[in-house]
Amino acid sequence: MARVLQPFEFIEAAGVKEAVAALSQPGTRLFAGGCDLVPAIRRGQVRYDTLVSIMKIEGLSEFSSHPKVGVKIGAQVLLSRLVNDIWVGKRWAALHEAVEQLYPPHIRNMGTVVGNLCAAVNYYDVPVSMFAHRAVLTLSDGTTSREVGIDDFYTGGRGTAVGAGEMVTQIDLPPPAADAGSAFKKIYKARRRADDLHKINAAAYVALDEAKEKITDATLVIGCVGDSPLRITAAESALVGQVAGDEAFNSAAEMAVAAVQPMTDAGWVEEIRSDWIRILARDVLAQAASRALSRHDPAEDAHLAY
Amino acid sequence: MNDFAYVGKRMTKPDIYGKVTGEAKYTDDITLPGMVEGRILCAPVAHAKIVSIDTSEAEALPGVLCVLTHKDCPDIRFSRSTMAEALPEFAFTGERQDQFILTDKVRYMGDWVAAVAAEDITTAERALELIRVEYEPLPPVLDPFTALEQGAPVVHEDCADNIAFEMDHPFNCGDVEKAFAEADAVAEFSGVNSRQKHLHMETDVAIASFESDKRLVIYSPSQGPHLAKKHLTKRVFPDLDDGDIRWISPAIGGGFGARLALGVEPAAVLLARHCNRPVRVTTTREEDFQGYSSRTDMHQTIRVAATKEGKLLAIDQKIVSDSGAYLSHSATTSTVNMQKTLGVLKCDNIKGHLTVVYTNTPVTSGFRGYGNPEGAFVLQQALDRLAEKIGMDPMEFRLRNLKEPGDPSCFVPVTLEHTKLKECIDVGAEKFGWKDKWQGWDAAKEGRYRRGVGMSVLTHASGAGGFLLEHSSCVMKVLTDGSLNLIVSPCEMGQGIIGALTQVAAEATGLRYEQIRISTGDTDVTMFDIGSHASRSMLVIGNAVHAAGVKIHDQICERAVKYFEEHQVKLEASDIKVRAGEITSDKAPGVVIDVSKVAYDAIYDFGEGGSQLNASGSYLSTSHHPNHQAAFAEVEVDTETGQVTVVNYVSAHDIGRAINPLLVEAQMEGSLVQGIGFALTEDFVIDPETGKVLSDSLLTYRLPSTMDVPPMEHLLIEEPLEAGPFGAKGCGEAGLVNPAPAIANAIYDAVGIRVHSLPMSADKVLWALKHGTEEAPGQSRVSGQFL
Amino acid sequence: MSKRIGTFNVNGKNADTIVEPQMLLVDVLREKLDLTGTKRACAAGNCGACTVLADGDPICSCITLAVAAEGREIETVEGLRAADGTLHPLQQAFIDHCAAQCGYCTAGMLMTAKALLEANPRPTREDVKRALSGNSCRCTGYVKIIDAVMDAAQQINAAKEVAA
Ligand SMILES: Cc1cc2nc3c(=O)[nH]c(=O)nc-3n(C[C@H](O)[C@H](O)[C@H](O)COP(=O)(O)OP(=O)(O)OC[C@H]3O[C@@H](n4cnc5c(N)ncnc54)[C@H](O)[C@@H]3O)c2cc1C
Ligand code: FES
Ligand code: FES
Fold first, then answer.
1. CA distances (Å), B681 to each of B622, B758, B762, in order?
2. What confidence tens digit (pLDDT) does each residue in B351-388 have?
3. CA–CA separation, A156 vs A158, rounded Å?
């Protein structure tokens, strides 16, 4: 644990091609805002010979949002760009809430959205919301690009689908259904064992039929409980066709609890964790559904955050 | 009478200017010519023999000046606590001198194994990586109760039973068992506090420099540089003497007790000696977390007994404290816990017993409140349980057992001469609306979010007169413009003492507040003083300033007589008064002489009267002059998540007189929020398997933020204390005592559960809600009660 | 890019200094440019003590590489005062309300508050709390800090109205 960083090289790539080419050298890593990399290097968790900054590459700063088209987030877009975006606030509420509650707020002015996903840290909030919104990432080697759904992006441990000689250039969020809503929530706890986590987060997306009664589509995601966010697929399929209400949400919440593997040998820690997963799952579903009903502005629910 | 120019006014403080402009210099902001960087290698295991250390690679690195290990240290053990130097020889047996600068054996994860000095910090840190240490792991003992068992791993070879300190409360009295047998109601509460981190924002740092005349100059944020200097010469570097060291405390980035222990200073001195260069030793936040200062966790059981009319008959307290790997302040804080806990209310039968145990965990230390918050958390809940048993309003129960002047104080050989605790309770309860909000022991609450109220009372010291070396001295000189240089010893850690002393000086001398400049923090300049702690500065140092100030005032009056003569008024010095820079007399209406005239003429007198106006003042305190508080908290508990939110807090303070209510409020607000962190979120978690600190960053150790600040009110009950400067008592520490117990009692009122270990975090509250208090996940190893 | 001369725009002035890629902005400000008003307390982006403004936005200088700050307009606490030495209304309000105790968090608080008031000149108390939620203070309990920021907002607005 150091106060300063040991020397490394720093390259400001001018294009995607140059950036990924530099990566072929061992000990090289892509560098965006550095929120993740700099503290990790200082703490001695990782060390690189060369960092390749992507922040000067042309064409990666695009950001746009439209309720019918979706959201596009270039690799250089900072988290802060999302906070005041009206459409993200209204139609991608889970993402809005994850970023709005990101603590401390300064980080939003420094970290990129893409960097947050690529860091593959299991307690981050933004990835959980991205699962709810079914984000699609564009990976490019500078010549060709391919799309990877967020479900396939995390490959275990801190690994991602980004291959050697590739980088993420963009994230796309598809437009939500007409009568759909989403929500994100988190709770902090203390770490009681080395293998225990200090936080739980959850996000949900719920789409309703025209009568705004029955669920036509749902996503339920729990974070902090494995290497990457966990989709509760059993609950998602069970929810479809049901009336959006307490009964459906409670049973989905039970499925969420059942889907999560125990993490520690301390029974009471597990029990509390399960309780919180249950409450979070139920509450994000209920809130997402209520937004689907009213399509209302999540800022009005700020007081409901834990 | 209450016609003060400055005392009692809400005024900002002089040292704040440098803090808002960035000009204030903290230790880390100082660069000396030729200064090099020192860093320390911390052990990665909790308990191990050091088989070998190979420093050759590190030494060979260009830019490295020296790499030191245990064999380079003076062969003498010392304690980080400097309090030994403030206690009489007989009293300080508790302070074991038990560690080396760089250790001979690893006793906790983070123990100091080696130190490096290099031309720059990057090289110093690279050198740390190149030191090869071979450890032979030993089984660690991470829990005080395991440490007490037969055959447990031994932390210190010269302490086979791991008991670092043990004693009965020196003021045990009455017949506790008889009282319990005869009582109408008996209650018990067990609990343990967490190792709250001081979290001073400035991480530990020190600069040591041997000047060309061989004198050692130390820059470090010490709360008591005179004491630290004495300790360093007496116990760490015995070849140095008091006069060989000049210790400068620059601006201090927070103390809260941590700076009352030696930090990296000994390592800085050792390195500076070896490389003949000024050395700055720095640390990181992670090292601070795994390192050597936090509150001591005290496992306690308190039994209390009362009559059905609500007379408190007996208190019996047992404490097992986990000092961590070295003793530091743990024995003294535990002792103070007993004093304050057993002494806050009137009770004729008291018994206390204390055991302080070594474990292979980070070292604990003294923290604001110094044992009192730890004890209050348990006692105030035991009292509530007792009140519940006899069906009495908990406020009423406390009111029936208040001490009065003439009773023994919490420091028993000294009688209590002044208490306004009753007024605190009355005024606080009125403001809070206790009578309406407290709905009885069986009030039923419903719904997901439930509210409840609770209260707590405390007594705390203003210094420890009669026990510690409670004297202080200061020097004053007046310049030709009527301004004053005041040379005085408090350490300004942000608590506002410089501001308050400026007010006392201005009031006592009659000079202008804006023209008073304080010099402090340099042991070459200031007089001996044991530092700023125990809420002593206002009372002890304030009285010394007052004493000197009055002398200056009188000198001005004497010299002013002749100026009145110029106005054809013949006066005695006693007819004259000086106030806010103006000399007047009731007997000479309309005549106003500026102090600068007198001050100027005093120096520029080429005749026989020439002498700068100057005075010194000293004060010796013989009592600890307790201050008191009563606090009322209202909380809201989310019964589904277990989260607790403080929604209102009212506290009333018996402080004699507030020299500056703004500063007092600032202290109380700060300590309340620290107290809320202590109560609810600040969780210092050590991995029970490895001894590694799991909460080693501000991400995992949750400090209260702006979002956690409840509406609060701090009421000041002012009735001057005769012995205090203008009637003031101390106030800084006490604010941290009541929050945890008041919140705990409020949680009980809201949802009927008690969490026995701090913090009362959401997971524990939820567990207790589901399983009841009697089935909580842990069990008190002191009493068998559930935690 | 290894050791070279970098140009930093700090408090409206360009300053040249030797930088290496691994240097943190906080160290360049403090050690190279002698701007020691900016403090480091956690070095991990958690506490806000090291907050400076980059193109007007609060960032943590403790986890920012200095090379990444070149070409941006950096403001530190030393730049708050007007050219004639007049204190910024926030500084004055911190003094009046006694909103700094040990002072170690103060520079960061002031800078974050400055960015807030520029973006939101009439904040509610809740807005101030939210904006400062990433700035830890161990001493004050935040009450006086929040009071001071509310007060400074009023002072600034009043001064603007007079000017208009
Ligand atoms: C103090 C602190 C608090 C935080 N709190 C939260 C929180 O509450 N919630 C939350 O969700 N997050 C939180 N974060 C995480 C923060 O949002 C991320 O660290 C940040 O967004 C990462 O982005 P960056 O641009 O700084 O990435 P960098 O640190 O530059 O990079 C992160 C990783 O992504 C890789 N990478 C970056 N860009 C690309 C790319 N285009 N293609 C492929 N790989 C790439 C890098 O190689 C690196 O491994 C916190 C971080 C800090 C430091
Ligand atoms: S020092 Fe930078 S955020 Fe704490
Ligand atoms: S004033 Fe000390 S940390 Fe804020």
1. 39, 9, 9
2. 999 999 999 999 999 999 999 999 999 999 999 999 99
3. 6
Break chain C into its structural domains and give their ranges.
Answer: 4-79, 89-163
Asked whether this complex has an ipTM greater than 0.90, the answer is yes
Quickly count: other Cβ atoms within 10 Å of residue B537's Cβ.
29
The alpha carbon of residue A194 is apart from the nearest alpha carbon of chain C, in Å, by 20
A72 and A125 both lie in a single domain: yes
**From the CA of C87, how far away is ligand 2's center (Å)?**
25
Nearest atom, ligand 2, residue C61 CA: 2
Rounded Cα gap, residues B102 and B765, in angstroms: 42
Mean pLDDT across chain A: 93
| Whole-number Å distance between alpha carbons of B698 and B687 | 17
The whole-number average pLDDT for the span C148-164 is: 95
Residue B132 vs residues B45, B129, B303, B376: alpha-carbon distances, Å: 14, 8, 52, 47
The ligand 1 atom at the shortest distance from the C-alpha of residue A40 is 29
Taking CA–CA distances from C94, the nearest residue in chain B reads B20
Q: Is the peptide bond before B759 cis (omega within 30 degrees of 0)?
A: yes
Measured between beta carbons, the chain B residues lying within 8 angstroms of C61 are none
Topology of domain C4-79, per CATH?
A: Ubiquitin-like (UB roll) (3.10.20)
**Nearest CB neighbour to B761, from listed A2, A189, A266:** A189
Domains along the sequence of chain B with CATH = 16-22+471-620 (3.30.365.10), 31-139+204-290 (3.90.1170.50), 418-461+623-787 (3.30.365.10)
Instruction: Specify burial of residue A73 (Cβ count, 10 A radius: 0-12, 13-18, 19+).
Output: buried
Q: What is the dihedral of CA A73, A79, A83, A86, to 10 degrees?
A: -10
Place of tokens 């005179």: B226
Question: E strands of B122-200, at which residues?
Answer: 132-137, 163-168, 185-192
SS3 B597: helix
Q: How far is the CA of C51 from the centre of ligand 2 (A)?
A: 7
Per-residue pLDDT tens digits for A176-188: 998 999 999 999 8
Element (H, E) at B717: strand B712-717
**pLDDT for B1 beyond 50:** no
Nearest to A224 by CA among A277, A278, A173, A265: A277
